[in-house]
């Protein structure tokens, strides 16, 4: 699996998708990281469809600008380009959001990288360090910035995008899975530390049809889907629906939880 942030748009899976709840996030503002495409963009779009104004981030400015425009333009969405593991970028995003929208209610930590595919002990120390800096360290940084700037005083919700590979071993992506396991633990730890006014939850997708996960399914999608109780791989919209639930008041008494969004893969003992 090559280095990536978020994922690319996936083709229509032909399956029923979660239906938006118009107005559920009216008046609220969300920050979604790694959201120029794939799961991040699907989450941002779902929140926007339900009334939120959104700020999205990604490394490359051009796709990010296009994504923000697709979400409704400057009155509804802004994009701020940069690296999630850069503290200056995180500070700039939070400042821009408060200047532009005046508040932050929801934070979705979606940015992730996995620059290597293979056994854990074959991964270079530099690659291990990068994976944990982006997948874990940056999430801590985003949550800290958002709490300091707004959530600590006003409350809100954080949703971390983990992975089924953080719940069970998965061939070829062991270091990535370890970083997601750390993110899952971090979710529970921060739920204890930041309650009662800030809720922190996570979703753990199995294989979702995005560019980020392409190496896991391309050329053998039907074979892989046979291990899923629901008979198909996931879509970015499947994940977005779960994130929207955790972010909403429908989950007002839920914190510190990780939901496997996996089409029933765990039932077969699978790791991805």
Give a structural overview.
With 272 residues, the chain is an alpha/beta fold. The protein has one domain: 3-Layer(aba) Sandwich (Rossmann fold). The chain has a 7-stranded parallel sheet with strand order 3-2-1-4-5-6-7, sandwiched between helices. Helices cover 40% and strands 14% of the residues. Helix 1 (38-49) packs across helix 8 and helix 3 (87-101) runs parallel beside helix 4. The protein has 8 helices and 7 strands. It has helices at residues 38-49, 61-70, 87-101, 125-154, 174-194, 214-217, 221-225, 236-247, and strands at residues 29-32, 53-58, 77-81, 106-109, 156-161, 198-205, 258-261. Helix 5 links the parallel strand 5 (156-161) and strand 6 (198-205).
């Amino acid at each position: 699996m090559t280095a990536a942030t978020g994922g690319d748009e996936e083709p229509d899976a032909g399956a029923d998708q979660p239906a938006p709840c118009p107005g559920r996030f009216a008046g609220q503002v969300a920050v979604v990281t790694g959201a120029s495409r794939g799961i991040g963009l699907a989450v941002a779009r779902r929140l926007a469809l339900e009334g939120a104004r959104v700020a999205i981030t990604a490394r490359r400015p051009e796709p990010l600008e296009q994504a923000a425009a697709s979400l409704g333009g400057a009155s509804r969405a802004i994009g701020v380009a940069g690296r999630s593991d850069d503290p200056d970028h995180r500070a700039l995003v939070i400042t821009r959001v408060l200047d532009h929208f005046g508040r932050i209610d929801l934070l979705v930590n979606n940015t992730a990288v996995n620059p290597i595919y293979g056994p854990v002990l074959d991964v270079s120390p530099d690659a291990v360090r990068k994976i944990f800096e982006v997948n874990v360290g940056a999430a801590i940084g985003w949550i800290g910035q958002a709490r300091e700037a707004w959530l600590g005083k006003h409350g809100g919700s954080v949703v971390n995008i983990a992975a089924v590979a953080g719940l069970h071993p998965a061939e070829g992506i062991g270091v990535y899975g370890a970083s997601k396991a750390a993110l899952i633990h971090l979710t529970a730890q921060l739920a204890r530390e930041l309650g009662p006014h800030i809720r922190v939850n996570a979703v753990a997708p199995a294989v979702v049809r995005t560019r980020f996960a392409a190496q896991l399914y391309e050329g053998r999608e039907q074979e892989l889907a046979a291990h899923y109780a629901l008979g198909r791989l996931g879509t970015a919209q499947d994940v977005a629906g779960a994130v929207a639930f955790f972010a909403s008041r429908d989950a007002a008494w839920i914190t510190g939880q990780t939901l496997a969004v996996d089409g029933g893969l765990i039932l077969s003992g699978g790791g991805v």
